[in-house]
Amino acid sequence: MTYFNVTHISLVLRTCLKLNRGFVTHASIKHSFNINFQRLFGYVPICSRLIHTSKSNGQTQKDGITLLPSPQEVTLILRKNEFNKEFASGSIKSYDSNQLASNDPIEDTRCEGQCKLTPGLLMGVFDGHGGPACAQVVSKRLLDYVAAAMLPTDTINAILKEPQGALVDTYNDKIELINDLKTIYDNSFKEFLLELARTPRDDSNVYTAMEKGVLQLDSDLSREVIEPFYSNGVINQKTLSVALSGAVVCISYIDGPHLYVANIGDCNAVLGTLTDDNEWIAKKITKEHNSENFDELKRIWNEHPDEERKTVIRRDRLLGELAPLRSMGDYRYKWSTELLTKVAVPCVGDKAIPANYHTPPYLTAKPDIFYHRLSPKDKFLIIASDGLWDMLTPLQAVKLVGEHMKGKVFYNPLKLPKKNIQLGDINELLLHRKESLKSKPKDRNAATHLIRHAIGGTEYGIDHSRLAHLLSLTPDVSRMFRDDITVTIAYFDSEFLRQCPA
């Protein structure tokens, strides 16, 4: 394959975009939306500490010649944000996660945590747009909202009497919100607990709890802007930036053999299942909320007058602007025209109100919730932002993780299966291990393995030149070729699932 230098690639792509023909990536469309939004509003910092994902240009110059990063440097870039967690009990043995930025700052976030008062594990991927603010805030708050909505009323009352802080023990949490936002968010969460305490509900209904947690947090993102404005006329730039930016969400709750997935937007969850014939099957659990989902298009058309049919979805996007048709935040598509005029226009300008904005709300954060009963054949769950699914099909991703599972066992020391093993058996075991070492993956972390193949994979394997080129692009060019990528992979304990009663 012939490779052009970065300048040539950039010029070709920009020409295609200007002529409105040729190959235009989903990432380039999303980048265009982000640039337009941030020109209006700008970036308002909401974190005092942030995951280290800013893209540095891997190119160096020597004697006027551009040098691409070496294989070792590429590996360092890919592994910068990887994480692994192992568990001693339960249906999840371990999980791998990783992120690779294209935007600067990255607009994806992720979170995982063990519920303190219920046995389940929560895992989420959040893909932001219009800036990182909404995704960062939602990733910090949503797990607690969902965990709280699952608790019985007497437990809620006990928490209100003796506050105990977060309801979820999170892992690898590298985002820390600034103090004034913490105070606002703590007050909102307390109000949510008070509402739960006085609202009769089915304590065991996970569907209801996940939906309640999502919708309440989304409502709070709006209320935290509106209430201070109506009380004293003050517009808080930080809470406004969160409400006007947006995030799509995919969050799972795993309790023993019970898997629940709540999806809002175009992230996806895919289950890797191994058949009796040792063939991998990809079970796509989620359905994207975008223009390729005809049921979603019909829902939106039915919610607005017939005369808006040609304007409510234009160029496969909501009001010609937003690709996901459900999201958290994005109150430019939810607030009334009157409220946008009072709150958003003074800060953002007249373009805060989209064209053909007649019958809001046009957008909802209501999740689709899916349930799957795990079996011993289900080996892992992949949750990832669309940056991965733009590059790999669900089946490709599942096969890659399946191959990685087979190969990564050889990172571990050899353990003999029994005490009184014969030397001939040991020799055969060593020969098999030597042969199998050929399939040993380059990366111990499966999320890194997926990202490496998504960026640099070809039908003949990894192409280092392609990988190095794409990793060395500056953010303004990189975002035209690919999106931020976030991947979390949870591995199931087959023996545990085999012993679960039907």
Structural summary, described in words:
- Helix content is 42%, strand content 21%.
- With 502 residues, the protein is an alpha+beta fold.
- The strands form 6 sheets. Strands 6, 7, 8, 10, 11, 16 and 17 form a 7-stranded antiparallel beta sheet that branches. A 6-stranded antiparallel beta sheet has the order 4-5-21-18-12-13.
- Helix 4 runs parallel beside helix 6 (179-197) and helix 7 packs across helix 8 (237-244).
- The model is unreliable at 1-24 and 52-56 (pLDDT under 50).
The number of E-state strands comes to: 21
Q: Mean of the pLDDT scores? A: 88
Radius of gyration over C-alpha positions, nearest whole angstrom: 24 Å
Q: Give unreliable regions as ranges.
A: 1-24, 52-56
Number of helices: 19
Into which percentage range does the β-strand content fall?
A: 15-25%
Helical residue percent band: 40-55%
Keywords: Hydrolase, Metal-binding, Protein phosphatase, Pyruvate
Protein name: Pyruvate dehydrogenase [acetyl-transferring]-phosphatase 1, mitochondrial
Family: Belongs to the PP2C family.
GO molecular function: [pyruvate dehydrogenase (acetyl-transferring)]-phosphatase activity; metal ion binding
